[in-house]
Amino acid sequence: MNTAEGFYRNIIFKTVLFSFIIVIPSVRLFLKIDLLWLFPIYLLVVYFIFFNLKAINSSEISKRMWWLVFILLVAALSHFIYPVVSLRSNPGSTGDDAVRLSAQTLRNSAKLYDVEISSTEPISPGPAWILFNSPFVLFNLYWLFGAGYVAFAVGLLRRAVSTVFTNIFCLFMGLSMVFAELLFNGHDLLPLSMAMFSVNLLIMYYLKKDVKWVSIILISLFLGIVASSRIVFGFLPIMYFLLLKNDHRRNSYMLLIISSAVFILTNVYFFLVNDNFQPGHLIFKGITLLSLPIFLALVIIGIAAMFYLLSNDKRKSLSWNWTVFLVLSCPLIPLAYADLINSGYDFKYWEGANYLIIPLPFFILNLLNDKQVMFLTANNS
User: Looking at residue 151, what is its pLDDT?
Assistant: First the structure.
């Protein structure tokens, strides 16, 4: 394959991913607020930005502290819009109820899962995730849940990379209407996405070198909490162990042991104390959406793909962030679009679009790290 052919294949591949992860899922919000006529304008804006990344990257205005403006705007919008959305008689999302109801049991039974949203809506968040984030509920600061994690992730990225890079990252996050909707309705998948992205940055930028024991322990605990957020993310400690072990063997084993212990012990304890361990429903949901044979095939392929992508030979040619993105996307993108098919292509009620918030920040990070994409308009440079 010649250089030009490889360049254009790469651009086409990134454009397709951009469309499936950011653009297509954004249709849902325009339908929900009865402003579908705005969607063509949205399309023009997002593709104009995508195909002019070099101009944005090199402009003087991109060097200002827009990332801080983004954080403040996210916090302000959450503060004013979430309380209004949460009071609607038909909110269209039970993501906030799942965390709020579970955390409130700490004042009574502390079993987390002895409450119900409804007979048809089981609680999905895992125990360590609920316990860790219960202060947002118990101190009436739930509007800060998503905004707080966004601020943490953006602050880490700014510290690790640069102002310009972080500004463009924030711009692309803001282009996703799934991001906006989850921020406004209080669904815990947005803070989960930001927490997953943050722990990835912490491991990648800190645990590859010698650090204090307390840093290893805190990052490992955080990974365990994030892995516990959904029972299906129990593979995260193994994935990061395999990613890290060639760079720092000691840190990788500590990370694996502590994070796995958090995931296993909290799930086992609450499985034993509850008559109905509601987070387990996600496994059956996957089977329902895809059918048992396809679900099992995807699990097997996913496990094999993870070990293949993380093998020593493959790790030399594939970046850390692309590996994480591909491992997360293999199950989540098919599940998201299977839900769209299952809903009869009714975009307005396509709840599976929410799953795409998880790989979104990793995709943007890879997009901005790709010099071929960042220099799309560099033909005459």
Answer: 97
